[in-house]
Each structure stands twice: as structure tokens, then as C-alpha cells.
Amino acid sequence: MEAGIHRLQIPTPFAVGRVNCYLIEDRPLTLVDTGPNSGKSLDELERQLSALGRSLEEIELVVLTHQHIDHLGLVEIISSRSGAEVAAIDVVVPFLENFGDDVELEDQFAASLMLRHGIPEDVVTALRSVSRSFRAWGARAKVTRPLHDAEELRLHDRALEVQHRPGHSPSDTLFWDSERRILLCADHLIAHISSNPLISRPLDGSKERPRALMMYLESLRRTRELPAQIVLPGHGEPIVDHRALIDERFALHRRRADRILGLISEHPRTAYEIAQELWGNVAVTQAFLTLSEVLGHLDLLIDDGRARETQDGDLVRFGGLE
Ligand SMILES: [Zn+2]
Questions:
Q1: Given 76, 158, 247, 313, which is the most exposed site by the fewest CB atoms within 10 A?
Q2: What is the pTM of this model?
Q3: 315 alpha carbon to ligand 1 midpoint, in Å?
Q4: CA atoms within a 13 Å half-sphere pointing along the CA-CB vector of 278
């Protein structure tokens, strides 16, 4: 593929389908993301590496793009078999090194958020057990090479600028090759689906609900500025016109915010009621995702002075201000 970068499409057990990992033929031999922790993914990774004349043992550096398990689950196996260094953005290091304990805290954070926003208790309980069972596809990682925003990750033949661009997750990290104008962007921008600005427990331990969508849109604005020729995402096909795609995403979020404003202008509603109006009764596994979407757009409306949040006992409702 581009400039010694090969896309490896590794299967996942999740609805999103395969995840893209990238092998960068350089010194050190670098793998960007690993795929989830499963025998099937490992087999596939080894098979695709060997089709390129490489083996897992030869990998010298694993670079992680963010904290989601479909991207990092095999990191422990790869680093222990190859002795590879593991690089990740500094803010996510404690999360990766305490994986398991921190995921439990993450689940507690999500559960109390869901209850406060009107999601029924049985759905919350079901979702927690789903999330527990998903945890096995992740892994603890010892990060030997913490990365810092705006630093240069130097390989022999190229320099990658590290760009911390939170939104889809608090640890989203992009890698920008300004010379070749190639951007590795993981789930920050995906051609065939709009990335979810998932609400996540703040990595700094603060209790406040992060405004994930606002953060995400700000990150997208910065990415839009880059004169990228090709953008290599974490799922699906490479993106050649990232500015047009980002503009589509901006329009989508504006439309969705307007629709939500219409709903809460009729009468105040909980975020869960809004999600039901928009998408009906979604699968249990989608409940947190749709809640994140709704809250993200409510944050935009509140920030614009078009909506307000009111506390009613343990429940939060939102009303329009127009
Ligand atoms: Zn992700």
C-alpha cells in the first residue's frame, strides 16, 4: 500500500466487523493496533503478516491508537512473543496498565450515568454483564514508550507527529506523516459510519460527565485543517477526501441537534426518552451508545443556550429554550 504501510484486516466478534491494523515497513518494524484478544484474531494476524513475508516475532514496536479493546487486545501476546516496545499516548497509560480494574470503574460510571438519564434498571444490569463478558477481548498492556501530544515519533524513514484528538474515546491518538501527507486516524474518522462520541469515564478521574461530542467536533475541526492526501482509518476503506467527509459529519450533528431540540421543545424529556423517539427500542448493547449520542447533542444545545437541564429527584430532564 502507501509508503510501506500495509493494512491488515483483523476479525472481531463485535458488530463493527473487522478492525484495520497497519504494518509499517520501517525500522523499527511497527504495528499500529493489534486487533482483539482472541485466537481467531491472532491466527489471522499471523497469517496476514506471513503473507507479507513477516512474522509476529519480528515486530519491534506496537503503537496503540486508543483504549478500545478491538484495537489493543493482542498487545500483551505480541509484546511478550516479540519483545516489541509498546507506545501509547501518556494520558491512557494508567488505564492500559490497570486494565480490568479500570474497566470495572468505567462500567460503574456508565451504569450510574444510564440510571440518571432514565434507562431502565434491567437494561443497565444486562448491559453490565455484556460489558463484563467483552472484557476478555481486551488486555493489560505495559507501555514502554509513553507518547506526548505534538511530539514526533521517529522511525528510520519517516516521522509521525503524535496528535491527541479525544472525542470518540478520551485517548484517541492520530499519527501524521506530514512529508507524505498520510494520516493514521483509527476511529476518529471512518468513511462508512459516523464515529460515536462515546461518553467515557474521564482518564484523570474527575467525576464530571465529559462532553464527548463537543470535544470530538473540536478535534475534527483540527483534523480538517490537515492537508492530508490519504487518511487510514481503524475500520473500512481509506479516505481520500477527509474534508468533505468531515463536513458531512458536521451537518449530520447539526441536523440531529435540531431534531432533538424539536422534541424537548414539545415538553421536557429524559435522554432515554429522546433516544427512544429517535431510534425506538434499540438492542440492549446499543443503549449506552445511543445515550452518548443524545447527551452529546444536548451538550451542544445547552452550550448554544438553546436547551437546559433540570434535576427531578434522581432523574435528569432536558427542555428547550426557544
Ligand atoms: Zn474505538
A1: 313
A2: 0.94
A3: 29
A4: 25
